[in-house]
Design a protein that fits this description.
Four copies of one chain form a homotetramer. Helices cover 20% and strands 33% of the residues of chain A. Chain A is built from four helices and nine strands; from the N terminus they run H-E-H-E-E-E-E-E-E-E-E-H-H. Strand 4 of chain A pairs antiparallel with strand 4 of chain B.
């Protein structure tokens, strides 16, 4: 991702750091055939799957589990309450995508992620996800709960701090 | 989508007109297993597939094709430039969803659809899609084009007017 | 699926009984855009989703639940141990598919379903699924269990008998 | 796929050659959330997506395109005529899968791939795909065509030979 391009796009002059994102992560993936449609391009839904996987990769990189099973049997996870995506240009089967995901905001129970997709430096899409920490009980309503301080610290860790967290290979 | 509008809708059992939607359509579908995830609920991405199918059903109901192949070989369709969804409550495998989709706005090249999902009268999700009429050429950039007056008329047809359009079974 | 059987079916316009299928069900669905790929046709994976949904519809039609939660908290379902599909011709976005699913065999713990897909009378695909009744325990191995006689009776009910089973709307 | 063969492979740490596979490729991927279902495990359909991506990776590794557009405008690809998968044990969100794909047979117009999935050395699934080289024409029937000798040579290249093929990054 060219910082210049990102700055131009925001018109406010904001690249990765200027976005005031807290923790962030870069990743890359190739467009698979399952993600295309009969218009010959990537189906718009695929970006939501990719955002979710990038979010999970970001969590793993700071030693967090997407699902936490506590000793008392309770289970916590992060369902979405709001998602959106704006599309700039099409990508096709086999294209490699550069994905940049960052934590744009953290509230008492929610985390807002922003995600930028590029192909060979060309803007492709920008997405946004608001996930809420919830107590998950089979058959019951999802119950939002406060995000523990340790998790806030990990999600907003700088690159340097992040290296201190023991990444965990579990899901 | 204003909460007030949603409130009105729930209170009155109507709301469709109060939204000042132009053309609209009600449909219903059952949650399939493919749309669930390991959290035991419907994956957030499924609502985008359902919105797309509801949009296509709305188009078919007024005799429009999702893909138009013209005699000169040119092809037109409606890629998305922006989509979003807000989630109110979870639904599960086997639940039946009531889906209400309407045309919220039409610009020179774009149509904005809004979509409301309910389960047994309970608010589940609200989505929004901006689709742009484009000339599709294999291997080329998608080129936005103006929406012909006949298509505008069909998309914004009232229920009474809609019955006059010869629905077309083709895709 | 033996070619002979398929031949019989095509020649006679019947075949359902000649297959010696036990319970069976006809259903119909339209190809959605999500099920297409960049080759312009339906992605081969879609038939597995459709078979699964047809299987669930067959179960519901005889009052069976896909997931059974018993009073003691145990849960039973039907994971697949083997699936296959043979493709005869392509289908495209918007096409309507006629789907015929039947119970080809029932063993102590397994049910074998066969599924035939047609479009306007043209053979499209034939699939086969072997599902095994399992006790599902979170975090544990799936444990195959015998199929109760009542469930065998429902799955193999003739059309006449099926009408006596109280269909259940739950999933 | 015979259990003996799988046993040999596990015991010897080899097996690839004992299967008499021609070209083969090992790859690895992590189970993404989109691939799970409400039973808490990977949905059976996911293995078909993974097989397809492994097949494409194998093709790329020997410099082949999944879609070939020739100078005269004709386009060739590899639709499936038959696929199957047998499931040995469940995998879950976050698990890493070892995937081994090989060319089991090549006919005049078809290639048969076999694919073995493992998690930490435990057998998970075995799949089989028969793909046919076809001339793809929009709106027309797919037309099977003979596989050129150069493509046969690349698909059946040994590891040593494969290094001589100029891998191509295009799709």
């Amino acid at each position: 991702m060219k910082r210049e391009a990102a700055g131009d796009r925001d018109a406010s002059g904001g690249g990765e750091s200027q976005r005031a994102w807290k923790g962030s992560l870069k990743t890359r993936r190739r467009v698979e055939f399952r993600d295309t449609d009969a218009a010959g391009i990537v189906h718009f839904s695929a970006f939501f799957f990719w955002m979710e996987s990038a979010e999970h990769e970001l969590m793993r990189s700071v030693g967090l589990h997407v699902f936490e099973r506590h000793l008392d049997g309770s289970e916590y996870s992060w369902p979405r309450v709001s998602v959106s995506c704006d599309y700039r240009s099409a990508v096709r089967f086999g294209d490699e995508l550069d994905i940049l995901i960052g934590v744009a905001a953290i509230g008492r129970t929610s985390v807002t992620y922003e995600c930028v997709f590029e192909h060979n430096g060309r803007a492709v899409a920008e997405g946004r996800v608001v996930a809420v920490r919830c107590l998950m009980r089979p058959g019951s309503k999802l119950e939002p709960v406060g995000i523990p301080a340790d998790i806030v610290a990990r999600l907003t860790a700088s690159d340097a701090e992040r290296k201190q967290h023991q990444p965990d290979s579990a899901s």
